[in-house]
Write a structure and sequence with these properties.
This protein is an alpha/beta fold. The chain has 15 helices and 8 strands. β1, α5 (120-125) and β2 form a beta-alpha-beta unit. α1 (2-35) packs antiparallel against α4 (77-101) and α2 packs across α3 (58-65).
């Protein structure tokens, strides 16, 4: 996924360098054509004679035919300096294009760098060549992985900024503008230039969250992607999600907690995290069949059950969203996010983290009371997340209850008004009917007595 997103950015950079190089080559050709004294054949012949016949140095030829400021002097000192600047820039752009496209080993500039921190992934990543990496990787595996990552990231950014500064200078030279202000840091780059910078990925387990340098690394705002592959231990600290959010909030970092058992949420979250203009903290539940007592084919099902049972809540915190905190926190992707517990899709029974724990062999020897307390703590953490995201809070519950009471009262009042109106209309109709009947009875009696009624008929 990272390769798919970052490769087009690299190709855009290569095309820009090539386009500038071609424009500079055209400018050099035009300058040389204008400088050569085509109308002074003798001067050109003398210049060629003095240079020999094996190789001709165009710069030397120009120096000879323009020597003494005679009729062949078509190249001014300013033009000569401009030509030298163009040739120097062309050489730098040629070197840049070669580094970006091929590099020293034929793969071109790496789309990202990687540091393997503490955890089983460090052991696996060190099994060269039995790993899939086509990027520079440092396998640290120790407690100083965040410090190593920061040093590498700053060095990596310095090279990337130097390359972008070269493109800035090339654009200014071609446009005839004053030299562009050199970029000295990440904050000096435009949004488009930042996208062209290769990020650094720091990979480790949950021990990374407790390392002292992680918050400092995230606070740099540089394009670092901290990938935490967690085993979702139910007996670990129950409030790691809130620590995750606290670490990301205030540092402008994108925070994602997702799972292999929620592929749609994972794909969307990773895309957003990789595209974020700044640091990103990504924590993914990655079950290990061997270490967690699972059948290999049951790993994904276990991940999905962890999400549905609230043992592993899905969340994202996007600092680019409006608001301060609650509106930036998103719990979408969790089943029935308004409820404390979600139902089993097959039986309809409410699930708890205990149901997920019973499906993993690693908890078979754990005291049942300890396991129940851990499951209750996980549900408590879920309720905290609901309140933080504004999905369900005491305030919203009061407002909802009040709104329901107001709607019920308004409905009752409307029914009462309709009833009173109906009774009034019935009374009016009853009076009209009774008056009509009385007239008919009177007229009938008058007719029976021989009197005419209603107009003398």
């Amino acid at each position: 996924m990272a390769e798919a997103r970052l490769q087009p950015q690299l190709q855009t950079l290569v095309k820009q360098a090539q386009a500038f190089a071609e424009q500079i080559a055209d400018r050099v050709r035009q300058t040389l054509a204008a400088a050569l004294p085509a109308d002074n054949i003798d001067a050109m012949a003398q210049g060629m004679a003095g240079l020999g016949r094996h190789q001709v140095d165009v710069a030397g030829l120009l120096a000879r035919v323009t020597e003494g400021g005679g009729p062949g002097s078509n190249l001014t000192a300013a033009q000569a300096q401009s030509l030298a600047d163009l040739l120097g820039m062309a050489s730098e752009l040629r070197d840049l294009t070669a580094r970006l496209r091929t590099g020293s080993i034929g793969l071109g500039r790496a789309r990202l760098g990687m540091v393997m921190g503490p955890g089983p992934v460090a052991w696996w990543g060190a099994l060269f060549p039995y790993n899939p990496f086509q990027v520079p990787v440092i396998d640290d595996g120790g407690p100083d992985a965040t410090a190593v990552a920061r040093g590498l990231l700053e060095a990596q950014m310095a090279v990337a900024i130097q390359d972008l500064d070269l493109l800035r200078r090339a654009g200014s030279l071609l446009d005839g503008r004053a030299a562009a202000q050199p970029a000295t840091g990440w904050s000096d780059l435009s949004a488009e230039e930042r996208l062209a910078c290769p990020p650094l990925v720091l990979v480790g387990d949950d021990r990374l969250l407790g390392s002292g340098g992680l918050d400092t690394l995230l606070a740099t705002g540089l394009p670092v992607r901290v990938l935490v592959l967690s085993d979702a231990d139910l007996l670990a600290a129950p409030a790691q999600e809130t620590s995750l959010l606290t670490m990301g909030h205030g540092r402008g970092a994108y925070v994602l907690q997702s799972s292999l058992g929620a592929p749609h949420h994972l794909a969307e979250g990773l895309t957003a995290a990789l595209s974020h203009d700044g640091a990103a903290l990504i924590r993914i539940h990655a079950p290990s069949p061997r270490r967690h007592g699972l059948e290999t084919h049951a790993a994904l099902a276990s991940s999905a059950l962890a999400v549905r049972s609230r043992a592993w809540p899905l969340l994202s915190l996007d600092p680019t969203r409006p608001g301060v905190f609650g509106t930036r926190l998103d719990l979408r992707g969790n089943p029935s996010p308004e409820q404390v517990q979600a139902p089993d899709p097959e039986t309809g029974e409410l699930l708890s983290p205990l149901d997920w724990a019973h499906s993993e062999g690693r908890y078979s020897d754990v005291d049942p009371d300890t396991l129940s307390a851990a499951a209750a703590a996980r549900l408590s953490t879920w309720r905290v997340l609901q309140e933080l995201a504004g999905v369900v809070t005491p305030f919203t519950m009061v407002v909802r209850s009040q709104a329901q009471a107001d709607v019920a009262a308004a409905h009752a009042a409307e029914l009462l008004a309709q009833q009173e109106q109906h009774q009034s209309e019935l009374a009016t109709q009853r009076g009209l009917v009774q008056a009509e009947l009385a007239l008919r009875v009177r007229d009938r009696l008058l007719l029976m007595s021989g009197y005419s009624v209603r107009g003398g008929d």
